Each structure stands twice: as structure tokens, then as C-alpha cells.
Amino acid sequence: MxxxxxxxxxxxxxxxxxxxxxxxxxxxxxxxxxxxxxNYDQRTQKKELECFHKICNKLDVKEKYILDLDxxxxxxxxxxxxxxxxxxxxxxxxGVPVTYVPFRNGIFLSMAAAIAEKEGAGVISIGVVEExxxxxxxxxxxxxKSMQESINLGTKDETNITIDMPLVKLKxxxxxxxALELNVPLELTWSCYxxxxxxxxxxxxxxxxxxxxxxxxxxxxxxxx
Amino acid sequence: MxxxxxxxxxxxxxxxxxxxxxxxxxxxxxxxxxxxxxNYDQRTQKKELECFHKICNKLDVKEKYILDLDxxxxxxxxxxxxxxxxxxxxxxxxGVPVTYVPFRNGIFLSMAAAIAEKEGAGVISIGVVEExxxxxxxxxxxxxKSMQESINLGTKDETNITIDMPLVKLKxxxxxxxALELNVPLELTWSCYxxxxxxxxxxxxxxxxxxxxxxxxxxxxxxxx
Lengths: 225, 225
Description:
The structure is a homodimer.
Chain A: E1 8-12, H1 17-28, E2 32-39, H2 45-59, E3 63-68, H3 71-75, H4 104-119, E4 123-125, H5 141-153, E5 162-164, H6 172-181, H7 204-216
Parallel strand pairs in A: 1-2, 1-4, 2-3, 4-5
């Protein structure tokens, strides 16, 4: 019998609900979790990192990589990394919002690929959501599939990596339900774009999360303003 | 008539011969150059950065991005970033050498893509060489083509980026000849993997460079030990 303990998954984990659930799914499938978190001078850097550590403790991860990326601050061009650009709070609109960070998941996945190649992990897990989402282009199914191909072409021939994106086609309410089924500690997750003690409830990310809980018919355990 | 001054190319420039020539090619085609350099705790970080600045002065670049990446030191796994792994000096061998840095060009191109999207540049230039090379998987034509597709799928719909890799199918001797034609300041470029005042002449990178000059029938202007 194959020793499933040797299966390793590199899980990109922000501390939010979606990436946490994605990591829990890999854990439930018998993978050892290598957790990767990015500090990129995002507004919620401190809060996200705290959540990441607490979630990793619950999840019993094998290894943690905490990567400091000055790059996005240097680049700016997003409300999440440039404090002179306000986070929108009046509801989702069509088009790519100002919270979009240029090719963020491309950079995250490239680093995750380097880690996976070094660690001999066959899977990268990412919590992208295409439907009930902010409309970020780097969260689309077609992009992630293409990136998987690029990663396999650009690494050693013996390196074979699958990018797992179990939530990409789910609605937020399905994500909430699935998280409850797997006993994901939703109370430890943080989705809000603002850097405050309580979630704001009105940024795009809060709106999507709250609507997911509402449609799932359950209460969100985190405090809101 | 189209104003060619508005064409911008993001040029990934290490300070080496290949990426310098690639940038000079874009300049000769009328592009404004946005030069991108990575400090990633490689053995030759200081030397490469000096060369990069000198080359940028000659090339009259529009803008410079110097990006500090702690990541590769944290990752290790390469003779270029882990000083406990020796740089091979006994000649090129088959297979991927220990100087390979996992998915380095994937990470570099992803960041270059974010810069290109922000700056409205339609081209990224990279000096990869497939034939006369160390055999790094992230320098292959097929990989770069795939990465171009991934970048266009993972950025805004109005962002359209071509990755230019003018040297990918050239021999090193052709690179030397082309560099001489375009008056590339080869005396300012650094290719050696070792961190010394003079190039070692025996690492894979020096061997490839020296053989290129030899076959082109010209002297390499940089000092060797």
C-alpha cells in the first residue's frame, strides 16, 4: 500500500476563508501540508499573519514558509498595497476593481512552484474563486490551468506539479458549507481588506463573505463593526 | 505615423552579456527601456548590481526597478544562492547543474509582468539561451512561450504582453557577434558565477562565454584570473 504520508502539498495560505478551506481539503486527503504565506505590505499584513499562524497550529502543518515581498509596495497600483488609494466600500461593480494587485497570484504561484520543486511536493493548493469573486484575472480557472503547464515546462523534467484549486467554481455559500463539513476554524480566518480589529462588513471581500454565510443560513463567527 | 517613443519594454537585466544584448536589441528597435534587476543573495549580487547600473547609464534607460528578493536565500537548493554548495568548475555535464535556481525565471517573469501591466508596457525582454547553455529548464523556448500565455490569461483583458527572447536559439558566438554589431559595452558585463574581482574562467558560465568569444574570433574584454 502506498504510504500516503509521503504526499506533500504546498498550500498558499493568506489566513482567509478560501485558502484555509483549500488547505483543509488537502489535509483531509492525507497530504502533509507545507504552508506558504506572503507578507507584501498589504493593509492587513499583521492581521493575516496572526490568522495564518493560528490556523497552521490547528492544521498541524509540516512546515511553514513566511515570505517577505517588498515588491508590491514598490509597485503600488492597488488599494491593498498603496494606502493613498481607498478601499471601495459601496458594493461590487463590474470590471477589475482597484483592489487588484497586478499578477499577484502569478508571483505567488511561481514561488510556490520553486518551493514545491525543492520539497518534492506534487501539489500546490490555491484558494482562488472565479464566480462569487472580485473579478481578479489571476483567479480564473483558465489562467491557473495555463500556469500549471508553464510551471511544468519551466522546472526539471522530473518535477510534476498539479495546481489544485478546489473552490474555483464554487459559490461562497458552498464554500461556507464545505468549511463547516470539514470543521475549518472559520473564527480564525480574516477576509476583510481593512486593517481594523473588527471586519468592516462593507468592503468587497466582507460583502462576498457575509452573503455566503447568509445564503448558507449560518452566522459568521468573526466580529463585525 | 505611430510615435515609437511610446513603446515600452520591461527588460530583465542581470548585468550579464545575454540580457544586456537583449535590452540593446529592444533599444535599437525604438523602445523605451524599463530595466529590472534582481538582488537575490546570489554569490555575485554586488558585482552584478554594479554592472547593471553602469550598463543602464550607457543604455539611457527610462526607469529602473531594483528588486530585493530574500526568497531564494530562504529556499537555498542552488550553488548560486547557498554558499555551502560549490560552484562546479570542471566543465559542463549533462543534466540540470547544481547552479540551477528553482523556477527563477518564472518568478522573475511574473514580477516583470506585474511591472509591465502597471507601466503599460507591451513587451518583456529576457536573455534566455537554450542551445549553448547550462541546460536550465526555465530558459527553454517552450517554457517562455507558455509563460507568455499564462501572463496574458492572468492579467487584465486589456493587458497584452509579448515576451521577447531574441537569443533563445542563438549560439554564444552569434551572441558575441550581435553584441559587437550593436556596440554593446561587453567590458561592463559580468557572467562569472564566482564572486571575485576577475572572472574565474572555469565555471560553466565563464566556459560558455569564453568559447563564444573564441568561436567568434574576438577577445573578451573583461579580465580573467
